[in-house]
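Entry 14. Structure prediction run on the chain below.
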Amino acid sequence: MEYTRIVISKFGEPEVLEKVVEKELPIPKKGEVRVKVLATSASFTDTLVRRGIYPNIKAKLPFSPGYDLIGVVDEIGENVHNLKIGQKVADLTVIGSYTEYICLVANSVVPVPENLDNGETVSLILSYLTAYQMLHRSAKIKNGQTILIHACSGAVGTAILQLGKLMNLKMYGTASKGKHEFIQRMGAIPIDYKNQDFVKVIKEKEPNGIDAVFDPMGGDYFPRSLSLLKKKGTLVAFGFQNSASGNGGNMILDFLKVKWWNLLPNKPHANFYLITSMRKQHPEWFKEDLQVLFKLLLEKKIKPEIGKTMKLEDAVEAHRLVENAKVEGKIILNVSDGK
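Output returned:
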């Protein structure tokens, strides 16, 4: 039986994403399940993978990108006893989910409640899990504290805003002027990064400092963000958006800066969050935290912002939209029929 997937044969611009028809379905090995993919997403992280600058990707070209997925178990390999055919599951694949079928390690997938929307659910796996773990695992934020989120109208920023609202956090967010109404609706105080100095704004409004900054920008944003923190505050770096976009900063240098700052005495704490590293170090947290998010979604306490829903074969255009920041919220790629 034939199936379709999107592959990268060389690193580069969105046009390197190509549709390929495979002649035979993959066969699950011992300890694996084959999953029929229902939905995946197009994220900024996927664009870094496509360009060949995302760290720790060891797969050789050609391969399929795709960081996350929702699907149903289609076939079960030997020695798999915890899943059944037809069961809905989620996984953080890092690469590989831009496909109609994929084989995954059975112990890596997380069961998904059947009555959740596929697009909203797949939005939780990368963006909301990143937001949740940065708040609760990295910064260890407590109810009622004050935080700053850079680039807060993006997928992860939006997730932090929603989760932060549940914790009664006082939230500031940097974004362009056109995103301010959206940010205010999400319960945060917007700062126009183009026309306002966020350091000056925060120091005027919060002279005693704030508890955490979530910074995907890197470069000269890091020392400025650190200057706003209380003595026991935390800078959580993630994404390195500026260096990845060619707008300043250096991914490796920024990472080393974060490590170096933690060696300085009497300074706020800084760390770099990478979801794959967190999962490798604490695999149980991945399943625990994702189940918490599924529960919040079921209870309608969070609602992912779906900016646009497209088809898998529209991956090229989806990546263009992500890189040009043309869409508020998550871009979902529907792969197979499903709710």
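The domain at 129-277 is CATH 3.40.50.720 (Rossmann fold).
Filed with the rest of this week's runs.
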